[in-house]
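User: My notes are a mess, but here's the protein and zinc ion's SMILES. Can you give me a structure?
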Amino acid sequence: MLAPINERWLKESVERGMAFFMGQVPDRIPAMPLVIGKAGIDHGYTLYDFYTKPDLGVDTLLGAKMMYDCEMLPMWMYATYWAEDYGATIKFPTGRMSAPALVEPACKTLEEAENLEVLDLKELSKGPTMQRHWVALERAEKLLGPYFGAWSFPYEVFVQVAWWVGPERACLLVAQEPQLMHRLLKKAVEHCVNVNAIVAEKYGSSFIAASSLLSSNTLSPKQCVEFNIDYLSDMIKKSLDAGAGPGIFYHLCGDHATDWELHKDVPMTPATLMHIAYEGKNPIDLHKVIDVYGKKCCILGNVDTTLLQIGTPAEVYEASKQQVLIGKEAEKGFYAGTACEVPPFMPTANVFAFNQAVKDHGALPRS
Ligand SMILES: [Zn+2]
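Assistant: No problem, the inputs look usable. Here's the predicted complex:
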């Protein structure tokens, strides 16, 4: 379905995108807007098509990368991975719905959750999520050839419990039945490690896209460490031991005023990307992020997704320029980015403005 891929361009784009991970300095800051569902819309499809046809999804992601001439990775995924596999119901997007969403959690009772057995690699492989994920990986490998890298999406340990018992109940359990919550989180770690291991087993490595999301808005700093960050660290460590990585993406989605600094001891490889979206209602000040994380790993920028949706290209250009100028100070490297997935129905002109600002202001001195 795609126009022919220019191999020289692809090579250059992938090399620019990978340079920091390999301890090198690229010619300029790579532009990595988190374009996912919008890629489908840009190609004239619906989000339903994009999320139910992983091969088509990967095609449109690579098409968007070509169209925007940026370093974004064509990683097809959605936030409600691994819910259906345990019996939860999700709804694929129709109309203005922006992504697949949870309808019904997997377990009706806490007893059911306690007795739930984590799927082993074989069961996981045959499940609905992995069946789609395999299609996406195979398609990406076919299109990208030597420039392909496999990815896995464990999402968040805490969120996996939320797919089992429901998001509100997961948060309530922290206060009401902390011991039960710990038992469920241990199971969720086991599940998430399997998710990474199964991809690594087939491809020899896996870029782990992990997130920290639900706990930061609802728990105290101490609870965030005890019920989320410690489990996230454990999950990543065990996944690396199982052959996944070396790429790790920590996506601290949404407002992280409570716990953004508390992730500083999570496992880091040379190919680690830390992404902190908001502090309160505003994108977090990247100077602060660079102070805490800049010596440890690469940083992904956070242009406000609301601005992308409702701002003008001039405003988006200015915000993107500012983040690139700050990002140049990051010792281990900086990727220009958006605070979360770009809104699927945002104006395309604003993605163009974002990328143009990175190209105009992102030049790096060759070392
Ligand atoms: Zn996000």
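Residues 251, 253, 340-341 surround zinc ion (CB under 6 Å).
User: Great, I'll file this with my notes.
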